[in-house]
Amino acid sequence: MKSGVVIIVAGIIMVICGLVLFYAIQSSPQIESFFRMIKHAGTFIGLLGMGVTLAGVLLYLINRNQPQIQDFDVKE
After folding, report:
1. Separation between Cα atoms, residue 23 and residue 66, nearest integer Å
2. How confident is the model over 24-47, as pLDDT tens digits?
3. pTM confidence score
4. Is the N or C terminus of the chain more exposed, i.e. has fewer CB atoms within 10 Å?
C-alpha cells in the first residue's frame, strides 16, 4: 500500500476519534474540568485528523505515476 493511502486512513480514523470524544460528552455549565479537557482534546484530535488527511491526499497526488511523454519527430 502506498504511504499516501495509509496517511489518509490514519487521518480519517483521527477525525472519527475526535468526533466521538467531542460528542460523547454533554455540554453543561457544571461540567467537570476533566471532561471539559477530554472534549477539547476531541476538538484538537479532529482538527489534526483533517490536516493529516489533507497531507495524505497531497502526498498521494504528488507520488502518482505520471504517463510517459512521447516524443514525436517534427520535420521542418
Report:
1. 42
2. 988 888 888 888 899 999 999 999
3. 0.77
4. C
